[in-house]
Amino acid sequence: MATAKVDVYGMLEKIKKHKPVIHHLTNWVTINDCANVVKVLGASPVMAHAPEEVEEMAGLASALVLNIGTLTVDFVDSMKKAALSANKKGIPVILDVCGAGATDLRDHKCFELLDAVHIAIIKGNASEIARIGGAAAKTKGVDSGSVPADLRKLAAGLAQKYGCTVVTTGKEDIVTDGKRNYTVKNGHPMMANIVGTGCMAASVIGTFAAVEPDYPNASVAGLVCFEIAAECAAQKSKGPGAFKERLLDALYNLKKKTISKRQKVET
Amino acid sequence: MATAKVDVYGMLEKIKKHKPVIHHLTNWVTINDCANVVKVLGASPVMAHAPEEVEEMAGLASALVLNIGTLTVDFVDSMKKAALSANKKGIPVILDVCGAGATDLRDHKCFELLDAVHIAIIKGNASEIARIGGAAAKTKGVDSGSVPADLRKLAAGLAQKYGCTVVTTGKEDIVTDGKRNYTVKNGHPMMANIVGTGCMAASVIGTFAAVEPDYPNASVAGLVCFEIAAECAAQKSKGPGAFKERLLDALYNLKKKTISKRQKVET
Amino acid sequence: MATAKVDVYGMLEKIKKHKPVIHHLTNWVTINDCANVVKVLGASPVMAHAPEEVEEMAGLASALVLNIGTLTVDFVDSMKKAALSANKKGIPVILDVCGAGATDLRDHKCFELLDAVHIAIIKGNASEIARIGGAAAKTKGVDSGSVPADLRKLAAGLAQKYGCTVVTTGKEDIVTDGKRNYTVKNGHPMMANIVGTGCMAASVIGTFAAVEPDYPNASVAGLVCFEIAAECAAQKSKGPGAFKERLLDALYNLKKKTISKRQKVET
């Protein structure tokens, strides 16, 4: 594998300059974390799910982030409305397939969304992506189950099938659009000791996709920033509570030289 | 402008003595922040929205805080029920017009609430208040858009129209009942780097209004406490994560002399 | 009273080894706190409430935690479905009777759940348990009202009536199955200055019950761990914000010798 060059800091500067509105329909567990992670990047998060307003809200956003972590049937209907509005406007829709592989409802609603609207970026952990990619993978609630050997192939196939970018998070993150493939090796084990790092990663990726039309690059850049911030935050943290607080601080204070020094992206 | 005298600390002591129950129907993004900010003041927050119980819950509260940040049609119906019960009992109802100016639904539901029940205090950012005050202001999701030149006039007119107090938050906060006008110049730019400072301000104001029947004074006192706490918290904070933690600590530990030394209220 | 021996650390090791999935249907105020407290113990929290998936999700869990803090009628229907599935699978169901004694809806829904499904552990504060135990106790929103003199008798009677364990939290926690009685004297006053310590205690108890079939012992062990962590966290905390962060750190870092040194359980 060769080291890949992605202008991560350039995108970060664009976010701070344009302050894009990032519309979310997300889960009730980590909704505050998702909003804060977007805010500390310099963008403007808005969470809105009423069917009467989602189209209008998506219309003033620069990206739409969908997360099925605490889905209901009505909520997914609102997601569809918002996503159709986003497709019409030409802004990227990011789908976090949270808990796919845990229940039939989650699998079916992911496929329903993927068939009804255009998703620019699908994001999930190994068993979630494997399941949506067609494998019989099982997810332990929202934590990844066993990782299939052919995960990279499943992810690439999923990207090709829906003409989108697929992000698989884990010890190593895989980003693929079915042609180009990246591996992001940043991050820290402490990320697994709090809830919401996966959801926050999707919100960060959505924020980068709002300013960068090359979605594989935007996904890589978002993951690099978020996971380098996690590395910095973990250094001085006694535990998950301190880590979560410092994660926001580190992301807010991320310097160009820290990124270029720590960035670990392979292609 | 002259410096205004408001007995901020006296109200804070009343809150700690009477521990008023503050009933919320608020948004799902910052609901935990709103509950905690009320708790650290020494009051007792309760969040309840089921139509079958909101009247009874409002009946045991000393103030009702409504926030439309993640509104739905049913949720606003519950707000109306709760507010009618609060009106009947004679406790103040605070309405945070979160996101007014972003979508038609938010505008219409604010007007619907203002026409159906008596709101004691309307709180919003510049473009939210301008929109509810009748201007064509646009809100960027839940962040303020451009601020109209005649904001003070719009706020005063809104207060007169509904016979209430109007609080407009920003770099300088404007508090008006249409006759008396206050400007609160406390606060810190770091407040803009986390979500929920606006929602928390409304909950703090509601808590002060629970013990102080002069609502312009209660609003000023609440803003002063919250924003002085923010000033103290920002001093030692490396970023938004540390700031958010220290904000609760500073509010909890707020001293009489810190308030009198830092209080910046003009009339 | 004699000092009771409960193998608290042995259970904690089982949790870290087996990483049980803990399914929650809980309130929207402290849902993130509940998920994080389960996560830092080493278990795997999942929050899911859609009627179409709750049975399947409960089916892959090792314990089910129900909390009526922001209940609606539909939400309680989903709780029933999930609990029936949990009963069928033979995993423990924990019910936090949050706000019982505040409104009729909360009382009725608690009784409805207790009659429709088997609850392994009922948890509440003094006035909540007193009310469900049949007294005319009133709860101040979600904070305990006056504590009846015969609280221990009411709790024991409640345990006998439903053949379950009853946990009453407060300055001293009472754990009873109607025959065996324990008093846990750990904890710290700072716990009362943030929201969610009660909800988190229920989630911790649920996590211990997932690995320990003796539910009174599991409840005692969970309370001991959570409250010793609170004692450690409070030592260096300037206020509630710092305390909440350190509470997760202390729980994550809890050592065997800290538990044996601080554990205060009487029988």
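qc> Strands of chain C lie at 21-25, 44-47, 63-67, 93-96, 121-125, 165-169, 173-176, 181-184, 265-266.
qc> done
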